[in-house]
Amino acid sequence: MTVSLSGRGVGHSFGDIAVLDGLDFEVAPGQVLGVVGPSGCGKSTLLELICGLRRPDRGTIAVAGRITERERLARSAWMPQTDCLLPWYTALDNAALALRNLGHSRVEARAEAGRLFDRFGLSGFEHARPDQLSGGMRQRVAFLRTLVSRKDVLLLDEPFASLDAITRAELQEWLLPVLSAENRTVVLVTHDVEEALYLSDTVLALTARPGRPAAMIEAPPGAGPAREHVVTGAGFGRRREELLGLLKRSPEPTAGERG
After folding, report:
1. 145 with 155, same domain?
2. Spatial distance between the Cα atoms of 242 and 94, rounded to a whole number of angstroms
3. Interhelix angle for 135-147 vs 165-182, to 10°?
4. Are 60 and 99 found together in one domain?
5. Which of 47, 60, 128, 182 has its CA 20 to 30 A from that of 23?
6. What are the DSSP calls for 56-72, one per residue?
């Protein structure tokens, strides 16, 4: 199997507080790795380590075989929990921002990003400001901005956490075929076990802080964009309960680990 992203013995601490310890993982090109675990177990920190914003204290991370922070950053695009849209930019200019940062002219960047607006359900809103968009539309603009960065690895940190349940389910159903068509390597951090199983090929469950691997679970076969049929299936339900059981049994951090 060709590996696009891998980690070996990854650990990280903030001062005396260990947040990650002993992580091993491999993700093939075009695959989606979901990461779930209790709050504070280092899920977001893992994304920062992958994309080179931090250096792991222990172990190594490689993106397309490259291990330095600069090399990983050049090959990774990170979508944080908040959409971070610039309020003085239009939706189109926000989406084109990653291309502008790559050195494209405003005209070139807007043209390339604009070609995706219809596919992303944003047609007709190119000139709207962020405060004129719904929460779901803002998240689509933020994801479009991440996608056009042309990076090998996409890191999605709770992309739908701020949305209501109905909008969240709609965007999950929308995102699945988008990821499949793009064939990018993706790491999806989420608190939602159902979301992780629906959108991912494999789910890494972490223990409470310090986050250690509790299990690596394959998503149920036959997943597709018809979300309501997938998540109500017997196989999906068994995997969901298995993951929830693992998280419930996750040990609480010791006094020293709490800091």
Report:
1. no
2. 40
3. 20
4. no
5. 182
6. -SEEEEEETTB-SHHHH
How far, CA to CA in Å, does 47 sit from each of 11, 20, 26, 38, 223? 13, 12, 14, 16, 25
Are residues 211 and 171 part of one domain?
Answer: yes
Q: Give the other-Cβ count within 10 Å of 181's Cβ.
A: 9
For residue range 145-198, list pLDDT tens digits in order.
Answer: 998 988 889 999 998 887 888 888 888 888 888 888 888 899 999 999 999 999
Residue 89 tokens read as: 């930019």
User: What does the alpha-carbon distance between residue 155 and residue 187 come to, in Å, rounded to a whole number?
Assistant: 5
pLDDT digit string (tens) for 95-143?
Answer: 999 999 889 999 999 999 999 899 888 999 999 999 999 998 999 999 9
Give CA separation, 223 vs 1, 157, 198, 235, 244, in Å. Answer: 22, 22, 7, 10, 19
Same domain, 197 and 155: yes
Among 3, 32, 19, residue whose Cα is nearest residue 159? 32
Tally of structural domains, the chain: 2
Phi-psi region of 117 (alpha: psi -120 to 50; beta: other; left: phi over 0): alpha
- If you compute the radius of gyration of the chain from its CA atoms, what whole number of angstroms results? 18
